[in-house]
Amino acid sequence: MAGDALDPGIRFLPEARLWVLSAGEMSYVFGVNEREELQHVYWGRRIRRDRDWSPAASLPQWDGVDPSTNTTPEEYPGWGGLRFCEPCLKVVFADGGRDLVLKYVDHALQDRDLTLHLRDLGCDLQVDLGYHLDPSGILRRQATVRNGTDHPVVLESAQSAVWHLPQGPDCHLNYLSGRWGEETRPTREEIHPGSKVLESRRGSTSNQMNPWFAIEGPGEDATEEHGDVWFGALGWSGSWKLVVEQTPRLDVRVTGGMSDFDFAHPLAPGESLTTPPFYAGFTARGMGQASRLFHRFQLERILPRASSGRLRPVLYNSWEATGFDVDQAGQMALAEKAARIGVERFVMDDGWFGARDSSRAGLGDWRPSRRKFPDGLGPLIAHVKKLGMDFGLWVEPEMVNPDSDLYRAHPDWVLHFPGRPRSEARNQLVLNLARDDVKEYVFAALDTLLSENEIAFLKWDLNRNFAEPGWPVVPVTDQRRVWVDQVRHVYGIIDRLRLRHPGLEIESCASGGGRVDLGILARTEQVWPSDNTDAFDRLSLQEGFSLAYTPKIMMAWVTDVPTLNGRVTPLTYRFLVAMTGSLGIGANLLKWTREETDLAARMIALYKSIRAIVQEGDLFRLLSPRKGRVAASEYVARDGRQAVLFAFSHDPQFGREAPPVRLRGLDEEAVYRLRSLEGRLDGPAELSGAALMHRGLRLDLKGDYGAAAVLLERTE
Ligand code: GLA
Which residues face 577 on adjacent strands? Predict the structure, then answer.
């Protein structure tokens, strides 16, 4: 019908002065109101008819205490005028003025990219609001703030975006909290009046909180399969903040970006700052679909292009086996064992460089220890390659031990305040990568390492948070740039290294899952979700992880028992749990029995046969390990021809049998051939999608830490 938005994309309706962004399941609409402010109009299920929209009009005031400027949902409110909600931008001008009221100037629309130009009502402080619409319906927003005045200004807050949800009560917020060893713990709570702040003030993404949210409602709870869900995540690996606010009018908004705690970013005349991207999407098909949409988006749009077609190799990592006690002979022996069970990438973890015999020394000195590797890394790498694997190495480039040659030469290279303590954590200090000389040193050290050795992969670690974030050699007004520049320069170093060493792959690790976000994921192939490798704990941790992030990047190692909980689980269980992500081995293979080694070889071969489905298929979380005694997840290949089901049992009681597991995401009419990968499977060898999804499969799950896996193949 003429005048209706049939095609996905971005449309400007000039008469109404509205922009309609439609893709996937959603429409996102905003316009210019009678005060020339950019006003949010709608975000939710797709609305196709242009004539359904009216021009943006400011909302009425609610008595004198809640004026229209406060109730009206703006796309990017400055802090100024009568505004009391969380602002997106807060500025101090050279004359001390702190009033900022942003008005619409004009826009530029090109295909899926829309830029709105805003300007302060009085002076030349400009904001370019960028919107990029992915065909999946995921929207990327970010802002560039430019100082067009003749004097310096200071930004006290520069958020990436605010997202407005439809008005209504009974919204629920889901987020991922945690701590070391217990990252990505899903938390769900009702949104109440006031603000809930999710944040990291630690200089990095953090193990404590992840910059992701999903909101259900208003008025209706979502399940895995049903209900409206608005979700999003930041692409930033420094301190960050998400403010989930319910206004006096019961509107819910989510403002997010770099943390404004201790933030004071100067802009000289003509200078600009671009905020990190903030991605968000909508689905009416529940939490499961929200995850699947986001996973696919990460696979197709976020993760490095260069490796996007490659499946994650099965890796071996030495950390849990040898700790700091690595040397050439020991690593060669492990590598031989690893190759025999089918490992494709051998990674030597901490302990190989400088005087690194414990966490007390060596960080910063990125040269192989002469004692442990008398001829450098060459012989070990050659051995690993001869065994048919590629070689990976652990580094922690942003850090330094005071007991290191680097620190002895450059004690001023760390974040610190003069005359104040330099607080150590894990015996280390944070290098000030905002400094050009430090940045160049770190780049050169890694570049040399990669140029001199055939290293296919770096495990890039970060094992402490910022403290005393001083940068004494620059003027006081510039010192707090460190919050932004530190992260930017880490990104810059990685980008340059990848350019110079095109085959290089990287894993992001930060004492486990302390740096998992869409900023680092644009530069790394995979992440280490947690140092906790207890398989039963991992089920919960991985479930939380999967709410936001794709299983392809989720490294999962099989390690030795007992674990940090003192728990002992069967090796088969440990394998199947790790096979629900990207499989790795972290055990001491030299101590494994013949039976364990054979089992491992069989499991790794099995994993290789299904990993494309796990790593790149659609994940359905069937039964949560946090509820009940059976946990199950299912992965359906993109083309729907295959699926894998994993199920795990624990704490059985009273002789009760495990309930049937009902699958999802299959074609009701199709018939699937069932093949047990692990565990007994009674009943017919073929079942229809309808039977599998509605009646379910009864699996042979008994005892503590039972595990089963089934492959389903669609028959013609
Ligand atoms: C961190 C990582 C571990 C390991 C150690 C090495 O704790 O999370 O996986 O690499 O550092 O010191």
Answer: none
